[in-house]
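During the no-cost extension, the postdoctoral fellow (Dr. R.K.) reprocessed legacy sequence entries with the updated structure-token encoder. One reprocessed record is reproduced below for audit purposes.
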Amino acid sequence: MATIKNVARRAGVSVGTVSNVINGTVAVKGPLRERVEEAIRDLVFHPNHAARSLKSRRSHTLGMVIADITNPFFPLMVRGAEDAALKLGYLLNIFNTDDHVERERTVFGMLRARCVDGVLIAAAPSSDPPTHLRDMMATGVPLVCLDRIPADLPVDSVLVDNVMGAAMCVRHLIAMGHRTIGVISGSPRLQTAQDRVAGYRVALSEVGIPFNPALVREGDFRAESGYLLTKDLCLSSTFPTALFLANGMMGMGALKAIQELGLRCPQDIAIAVFDDVPGADIFRPHLTVVSQPAYQMGYQGTELLIQHIAGKIESKEPVRIVLQPELKIRESTNGARPRTTTGG
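Re-encoded structure tokens follow.
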């Protein structure tokens, strides 16, 4: 097995130079760095991370805690985080909580025991104070929240502009002539869900459409809730001509419900969705969505976390990176004007 001395000898440099290339402690540029990297590849050299951890008191591992691995949004975020972590020399340990805060607390206990250098988290819905997150931060382990920020927690975060994205969706429905627009939100215990309902209300108020609580349903960001609540709205006395769903999984559930009810989309009811779903183009009609940059969220969140670990963040205030959504207009809202309705 190759050693760091073998690498130094092959590259014709000192052991210290090899160490600087591996650890990034001192910048090594140009042909010198290229010679070291070529020697590492030729010798299939793998640094002894255990020894490095003892010396630096860092494990070069990160924890990533996500809410629902079955939601295609989160694997995209994980991919971005993993790419950034590997590029910067860190190993990423991924945990799924299934949106259960008790499981999240258990995971955080395991992460503390394993001495990770930092944690990325898309938090589970909870009405309780995030004491397990505060306890982790109190030990000096930095956290970065992705997509979801627990209330009253001064923590770095990377998220999309949820109010803007929701307003973009609903403005589009209004521009298509709709006035009776239902909304299926996520859990009100999540700020993300609250912000998307706020964006819905902003778009209505801009054109003087009164907010009607009868058109609102609270889901849980899962396909089954989109399916059941779409049926509930469509069978109610206040039948909407359009629906805004607060995430892609619920949008897929809504399409299934509409088809089972014998309705046509968009002729009988139009659909606009917050968040794209990879692979959803195999279903018809193709969904109009506000796409959020999940990959970039994971990538930039990891970069921010590692900057904190390296002590490169000077601000004492929480850093918040807000990414912009993009409206993608497709078949589920186009090609038909809304039918008349007696709804409010």
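Residues 191-206 form the longest helix (16 residues). The chain has two domains: 56-160+293-323, 162-291. The remaining legacy entries will be reprocessed before the final report is submitted.
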